[in-house]
Amino acid sequence: MPEYVLPPVVLLGPGVSSAVGREVAALGCRKVLAVSDKFLVEMGLVARIQDHLKAAGVDSLVFSGVNPDPTTGNVASGIKVLKEGGCDGVVSIGGGSALDCGKTIAYIGAAFPDDPVEAVKTVPRAARSLPFVAIPTTAGTGSEATQFVVITDPVAKEKMVIINRNLMPRLALDDPELTVTMPPKMTAATGMDALAHAVEAYVSPNASPLSDALALKAITLIGRHLRQAFVQGDDMNARTGMMEAQFLAGAAFNNAGVGYVHAMAHPLGARYHVHHGVCCSLLLPAVCAFNLSVVPERYAEIAAALGCNIRGLSTEAAAREAVAAIAALRRDLKLPERLSEVGAREEDLVSLAEEALRDRCAPTNPRQGTREEVVGIYRAVL
Ligand SMILES: [Fe+2]
After folding, report:
1. Has residue 248 been placed in a domain?
2. Domain match, 214 and 340 both
3. Cα of 255 to ligand 1 centre, how many Å?
4. Position 2 in a domain
5. pTM for the structure as a whole
6. Ligand 1: distance of its center to the CA of 115 in Å?
7. How much distance in Å is there from the Cα of 263 to the middle of ligand 1?
8. Is 157 a domain residue?
9. Å from CA of 196 to ligand 1 middle
10. Distance 262 CA to ligand 1 centre (A)
């Protein structure tokens, strides 16, 4: 039976982030923790958001200690600031890392645990989150639409995927103006992450009419806008299209889950410190090729959504067009195509595969593989 989980309010369009004060005040918050990274603080973006909050009578404190892959320690430090400052809400400004860290601070921090690191690992089921507001500055993770976070345990060198409805943001302000300064490399990587969300949700055994609609539209928009956002970063039409797409893709996988691209990307990212979007982009065509035989009609529909001419082709041939189109997009975006380019070695593949098969995203891949088969996928990309 499908279970539909969507964020209650999303405002999307150029300039919507300036509504943050009014919207946060409407949630009943008086003092919020602004969670971001040092770069966005230095750029002045966080101060701008604080000004909007202040104008609406909402105080704020800043926590800028978010790592590119947020850790249990980042969450614990944020909770300390939240607790000492007496904050009653959290506003994250940034990419997936700031959003995931802020979501976890708002949820775990609501219970004021004595040991926040341990609390992140055990995830108290009964706790309720403080109001959380997401202001993404990249167009990829869709974290503002999901009950998922990925937090790295630096001791075990593992990425923990936490899935919990209490992690759902109360409000998202998806402002494409905030993404125009993203460099092309980041635009490419985050855009391919969004494509991986949509493709994996579309072929998931948990797909539903809702996730299908969201995923297919996301794929269409990515096919239409990602190359342009990459070559001309200030094209607001392309940036708005990608902001729409990544939100739809996030909402799609929030309901259908993702699969082996993500299960296999997590250990890669944790081990070699490679950007999550680059990891997904490296694996996406190979995982599609592995899955193709079990859901060819789904991949044929993905090919059509990406704009491929599949008229007259068999379902299998049309499905293969999807893999070719994704590989061509990746080439145009000048992203790496081999795992060896990011430091992976043959002798690491077995342990990577073992970790991938333990990942919480693995069960929603449409074709379940053995350890050797997953090693084979990694090896095909090595
Ligand atoms: Fe992702």
Report:
1. yes
2. yes
3. 14
4. no
5. 0.95
6. 28
7. 10
8. yes
9. 7
10. 6
Same domain, 157 and 260: no
Cα–ligand 1 centroid distance for 19 (angstroms): 27
User: How many Å lie between the centroid of ligand 1 and the Cα of residue 30?
Assistant: 33
pLDDT tens digit sequence for 10-60: 999 999 999 999 999 999 999 999 999 999 999 999 999 999 999 999 999
- How long a stretch of residues is the chain? 382
CA-to-CA distance for 136 and 141, rounded, in angstroms? 9
User: 314 lies in which domain range?
Assistant: 184-381
Residue 176 contacts by C-beta under 8 Å, 6 or more apart in sequence? 12, 13, 14, 139, 236, 239, 240, 242, 243
Gap from CA of 280 to ligand 1 centroid (Å): 7
What b/e string do you get for 95-116 counting C-beta neighbours within 10 Å, with b at 16 or more?
A: bbbbbbbbbbbbbbbbbebeeb
What one-letter code names the amino acid at 245?
Answer: A
CA of 195 to the centre of ligand 1 (A): 9
Ramachandran angles phi, psi of 323, nearest 5°: -65, -45
- Quote the number of domains for the chain: 2
Q: Tell me the two tokens of residue 335.
A: 């992203």
